[in-house]
Structure formats: C-alpha cells, structure tokens
Design a protein that fits this description.
Elements: E1 4-13, E2 22-29, E3 32-37, E4 43-48, E5 53-56, E6 58-60, H1 68-71, E7 83-87, H2 103-114, H3 118-124, H4 132-138, E8 146-148, E9 151-152, H5 153-161, H6 163-166, H7 173-189, E10 193-198, H8 217-228, E11 234-239, H9 244-258, E12 262-265, H10 273-288, E13 293-297, E14 302-306, H11 329-337, H12 339-347, E15 369-370, H13 385-392, H14 396-404, H15 406-409, E16 413-418, H16 426-432, E17 437-439, H17 456-467, H18 475-489, E18 506-509, E19 515-516, E20 520-522, E21 531-533, E22 536-537, E23 539-544, E24 547-551, E25 554-555
Parallel strand pairs: 1-4, 1-5, 6-7, 7-8, 9-10, 10-11, 11-12, 12-13, 13-17
Antiparallel strand pairs: 1-2, 2-3, 5-18, 14-16, 15-16, 18-23, 19-22, 20-21, 23-24, 24-25
Helix pairs in contact: 5-7, 7-8, 8-9, 9-10, 13-14, 17-18
Length: 574
C-alpha cells in the first residue's frame, strides 16, 4: 500500500529558503509536504523530475482578480506562470463593501484604474453581496489556485461617506471610526489587510481622481489602528511620493500606530536612481526602528502594449485612422494595407491621447519596440522603432504601422515607462536584490487592453536567472523571493517553502525551456470583452495542495484552490 499520495523523484529541489539546491525527492499526503530528501515510501502517483527544478508554487501578492474571481474558476493568465496563490484588492480598489446604488461608481473606478472593461464587469459581477464578509462568501467556489483579498479603501470610503467620499472630502471623526470598524470586521472575517491609493495616475473611467487620493493622515492612521487592534492583517499603498519625506511620514505613522506590516509600490523612476535610493533609505531607517516596511517592485519594465486590437496604438488620435477604427479586425487590416489609405494615414498629424491611461506614450517611438515570438524585456535601444526607421530611411510611424499589421493585424508594440530609465534594467536589479523588497506588481487580471504583466514570475526566472548576459541573480534567491518572502509579506506562513508541514504547492520546471510567449488577445471576458494574455513554456507540472492543476501549460480541470483567509499559521517547527 502506498504511503504517500504523491512522490516527485530525482528532481533538483530549490526549497524557497534560499539555501543550496539539492537532488531530492518530495513526498506529499493530504495536500501537505511530508518529506523532502531520499523518500523510501511509495506514492499513489510517482513522478520523475530528473533534470528538472522542483520549487514551491509562486505567490503573487499584487493582482486585481477582484471581479474575475467571482465569475471564473481559473485565474489565468497567472496560473500559466507557476502561480499557486494570488492576492487582490490592491491599490484601494475593489467591490466591497458596497451599497446597491454604488455599483456603477465602483465599476467606473475599476475600469479607469485597472483598464477592465465596464461591460465585462456589469455582465460578470453578480453583486450578491453588500458587506465585506458577504463578498468573501461570494469568492468561496473552487479555483485553479488559492485566492485571497484585501479591504479596498476606495470602496470603504464610498460606502461610509457617500458623495463626500467620492469627491475626496475630508473624513470626519465618525467617518474614520466607521471605516476602521468595517475594515477590522473585514480582517476578522478573512481579508488579509487594507489597501489605499495616493497616486494621481488612478482615475475613474470618467477622469475623476480615486476617492482616496487626498485622504488625510488622520484617516489612514485611524483605519490602520483599528486593524491593528485585531492583531492581524497587513497594509498596502501606492503613492506618487512627490514629497518623499511627507509621504513616508504617513507610511511610518500607519505602521507605528497599528503595529502591522506595510508595503508599497516602489519602482525605478524616470527622475533617476537617486529617487528610489532615497525611498530605500527611508525603508532601511524604518527597519532599523523595528518597523516592518517593504517595497513591492517590478521584475521588468512596466510597459504599455500598442496594437490595433489593443486600447492604444500610435494612430489613436489620427483623424484618418478614425475612419477605420470601428471596423472588424479583418476589414480594418485590409483598409490599413490599402496604399491610398496608408498614404493619407501617414500624412495626417498624430498626437497623444491625454485622457487615456498610457495615452501620452503612443508616439514615443524612441522607446517603442516590436514584440516578437519571444519578447525581450531588456531590449537594445538600437532596436527601437525610431532606430529601425532611421536605418531604413523611413518614418517611425511607417515602421510602427508595418509592425502592427503583422500576424493579420494583431501584432503588438511595447513602450516601457518605468524601470527602464537608462535603457537597461540595472536599476531594477538594484531594487530586486535589496534586503527589504519583494517581486510584485504583476497586476494579474487588470489592464487587459494595455498591459500584460501576469507573466512577471516567468520573466523573473527566465531573464534574471538564465538569459541576461551579465549580472544574473541566483535562481535560489529568486525563488525565495517569489515564494517564501511574498507569502510571509502578507502573513501566509503555511506556504512558499518545500519542507514538511507546508502546503504542497509545487512547480516542476524544465528550466532550459522556460520562456514567455508573445502577448495575445482573447475575447473571453463576460459580454465578449477582450483581454491580453501571455502564456509560457517550461512549467512541466504545477500542483496546488498536492493536486496537479496544469501540465505543460494546459489545465487539468482540477480545481483544488480555495479562498485563503487571514491568520494562516506557520507549520509546526518551521
């Protein structure tokens, strides 16, 4: 009789603790790792992982599956990239708590901030909840991975303050007390923490700023204190940090008053390395004072995708293009290839779209790159659209047009707008390897017409662990960061490590074949909404709680994932 449910044999185990890899077996029973080493007992299933890496499942702490998780069992594209736990509700946006009359406002906010089609949200969301605990109940069905949520400040503010909250008015003491009470209730019910946004980049689909933009220090500290009284939960924010000292004073006040960990978005700024180094200095000072402050950083440039099927393209405001913009893909492609139309199009003035998210980038040809079948996210500047055009004696617009007309008019261009300030990823490496950061910001499930960064975990291993020509990073360190460290950041102490007693969330990786595919468009959101997705090669097997969910990138149909609630205990002896 078999002693284990599963034994993965002869693999190269990287356990997530940062130690040296070892050739070992991994045994699993009842969804838990039971042995790592030379496993003598047999398994009901035996899997040979010779020449492959065996690692914990990836934990993605910054996604926006708030809507998708209510109507869909699969958290794709993240689940194609070895991710076995996702956390959403980031940046202060989400769908609970909510009064019935405020559905439209929350949809407009999510549509504007996260570029998720409002039509898809209206069609997909059942709205069979009002309170935070009721929303968690709505997430309770089986999934292809574990999911977890955070309390979004914008929804909380609108729920408590109504129109005053939506317009960014100051919260009164009673408002703060009620927001704190509800946030604490949410954390007690299972939300992992509380999130807020303080960036001017976040606007509703009507162009209005996020309701939390100007929330006063007293409001943020009051909510944090209420969460702190529960003895659990974390805090998260995104800020422009235009006043680094002033903003970081708020970060410190929130964690000092609550005793809870806090993390925030930290990327290389176009302002230069000294900008993010100043923030890192503040983090180091806070840590020296015993405050658990962490930066969430991207693993590659965050960039906008441009194409005729995407939200944005370089001809978006071109008056000639607008004659064809409404046409279906095949007809539009034929028109764009017509010599007379093409001549008129290229002669017409272009310009930026100052209203659309990312619209300022649509003519930045000097940092615009074609994306081939194997995207390069640290491209040589000599391969930009502008450089290609100069060598060919063409205009950048002409080169961009030809590039986007490939693949029957579905090809995409890419414009990095952060983490690429010096035309390379040296600043990103500095952030990734800092003691007090974790890889994050994939925004899985969001920006479905402009960005596809749910593939971050694959880029982390492929580019930094294997393909970069210089200054690569040890794979053991990368896996520690994407597994154990991300899990612990949000209080998920039962996963992220391959050791006895931990959850059997496991990736078996063919490291030599690991690669991200080029982004592609699907029309599978509710109401036929579009989304950009990105697949990967190299994930031979992905297990959630010991159950195989994906084999070579294809779903097995098994759905062992569940809603994870706050307060996950660490395994005994861990």
């Amino acid at each position: 009789m078999a002693e284990h449910d599963l034994v993965i044999r002869n693999g190269t185990v990287i356990d997530g603790n940062g130690g040296t890899r070892q050739r070992a077996d991994v045994a699993v029973s009842d969804g838990i790792v039971t042995e790592v080493g030379d496993v003598a007992g047999s398994g009901r299933r035996e899997l040979d992982a010779d020449s492959r890496l065996v690692a914990p499942g990836f934990v993605d702490v910054h996604t926006h599956y708030d809507g998708q998780a209510t109507w869909e069992a699969t958290m794709q594209p993240s689940s194609w990239h070895g991710v076995t736990t996702v956390v959403f509700g980031n940046c202060g946006v989400g769908f609970a708590p909510v009064h019935d009359v405020d559905h439209e406002r929350l949809v407009q906010l999510m549509e504007g901030v996260e570029d998720i089609p409002g039509t898809a949200l209206h069609e997909g969301l059942s709205w069979n909840w009002n309170s935070l605990p009721e929303y968690l109940d709505a997430l309770g069905g089986p999934k292809d991975m574990d999911i977890a949520a955070q309390v979004p400040h914008a929804a909380l503010r609108l729920h408590v303050m109504g129109e005053r909250g939506a317009k960014g008015e100051d919260a009164l003491p009673d408002d703060i007390a009620e927001m704190g009470r509800l946030a604490a209730e949410g954390v007690e019910a299972g939300f992992l923490g509380f999130t807020t946004s303080r960036t001017q980049n976040h606007k509703t689909s009507l162009g209005e700023p996020t309701p939390t933009l100007t929330a006063a220090r007293e409001e943020l500290v009051g909510i944090a204190e209420a969460i702190g009284a529960t003895g659990k939960g974390v805090l998260q924010l995104v800020s422009d940090f235009t006043d680094i000292d002033g903003e970081f004073a708020i970060v410190r006040a929130m964690t000092e008053s609550s005793g809870r960990p806090i993390s925030f978005t930290l990327v290389e700024s176009p302002r230069g390395y000294e900008y993010h180094r100043s923030i890192l200095g503040h983090i180091e000072a806070a840590r020296a004072d015993g405050l658990e402050v962490t930066g969430q950083t991207a693993v590659r440039p965050i960039g906008v995708l441009l194409g005729f099927e995407c939200t944005l393209n370089p001809f978006l405001v071109n008056p000639v293009y607008r004659e064809a913009a409404h046409l279906g893909k095949a007809e539009r492609t034929a028109v764009l290839r017509d010599p007379s139309f093409r001549a008129r199009l290229l002669e017409a003035a272009g310009g930026k779209d100052m209203q659309a998210v990312g619209g300022r980038l649509i003519e930045k040809y000097e940092v615009m790159f074609p994306l081939g079948t194997s995207p390069n996210y640290e491209p040589d500047m000599a391969n930009s659209i502008a450089s290609i055009a100069a060598r060919a004696g063409k205009t950048p617009a002409e080169v961009a047009l030809d590039a986007m007309l490939e693949n029957d008019g579905t090809a995409m261009l890419w414009v990095p707008f952060s983490n690429f300030g010096k035309g390379n990823l040296d600043g990103t490496r500095e952030l990734l390897t800092h003691d007090y950061t974790v890889p994050a910001l994939s925004d899985g499930g969001a920006h479905v017409g402009t960005i596809c960064d749910g593939s971050f975990p694959t880029t982390l291993l492929q580019h930094w662990g294997r393909d970069r020509s210089h200054d690569r990073i040890d794979v053991e360190f990368l896996i520690q960061r994407q597994c154990r460290d991300t899990a612990r950041l949000l209080g998920l102490h039962d996963r992220g490590v391959l050791a006895p007693g931990y959850r059997a969330d496991i990736n078996v990786i063919d490291f030599g074949r690991l690669r991200v595919h080029q982004p592609e468009l699907l029309y599978d959101l509710p109401a036929g909404g579009r989304r950009i997705v990105q697949r990967a090669d190299g994930y031979a097997h992905t297990f959630v709680a010991g159950v195989e969910t994906y084999t070579e990138g294809e779903a097995t149909g098994e759905l062992p994932g569940r809603l994870v609630r706050s307060g996950q205990p660490a395994p005994v002896g861990a």
